[in-house]
Amino acid sequence: MLLASISAKGLFVALALSTDLFSLLGGENDSTLALLNAHLSDRIRVLCTTADAVRAAKEVAELDELPDVDELLSYYAAHGGGLLSPRDRERLEKGEYEKIRRSIMRMDYGGMGLVPKADDPFYFTHGFLVSLMSRLPKPKEGGVILTGRANHIPELVELAHSRDDVFLSGAPFHAYLARRSSIREINILSLVSVSLVLAIGFWLFRDFRFVIPTALTLLAGFAAGTLALFVCFSAPHVLTFLFGTSLIGLGVDYCYHGKNARLKYALATTLAAFLPLFFSHVAILRQMAVFTVTGLVAIFLCVSLRR
Known about the structure:
With 307 residues, the chain is mainly α. The chain contains 14 helices and 3 strands. The protein has a 3-stranded antiparallel sheet with strand order 2-1-3.
């Protein structure tokens, strides 16, 4: 079991796991919100308050001082439907259509929208972008905001930790830290489970001869479940493994009751509980079903072969 925990840590470091909350959705991934997220979620921002910090940040990652505004505007022009500024949203909710009409006339005759008129006839996307710009971070005097794609995240995190003039912002940084935190929590939960299993097992059997066969059985179940996940899903979510630590408890029960001829009925009832999750629209529930069902079947087969 300890071997299983150590192997799990190595696997999580080596394999690409998803930490994006949008990846947990099902058919909703086709929505405009998901498209915008997919396009912009890998953008990062690095605030440097000194010239030396700017040089240090550019040494570890490819960063630009100015974002690609034309690319951003063209994308919002194509996918801007339903994106409203707080003022426009309030006017629509109150039915203040005359104010909206007058605002459109002022823009037609005296202003210039950020998005072409043909793509934004009511200037709603223009208003949304203006409201976004008003909330952009304002760096300190002499500060520079660098932007770029989600490359060299660990190096930038290390740079920010080692300096007090570099600050990070963007979903990729949060995802990286969440993934690292999840790996730590998975290993803590696994080690707590292992410790309790060892204590209860010694109390039952008065020796530790059960450890090796139990550890090998759990390792086989974990390996089978992980393999099935990466066969069925290109990037399983890290939460699947966090919730999947319950496989340890189920697997130990199977090892303790391996000589019971009715163990197959216990397997059947557990599978009956997890199989409906295969038809869920929520991706993480399908992933949990694949991991648990495959791992539990592998554990059952290992226990059966030892009889």
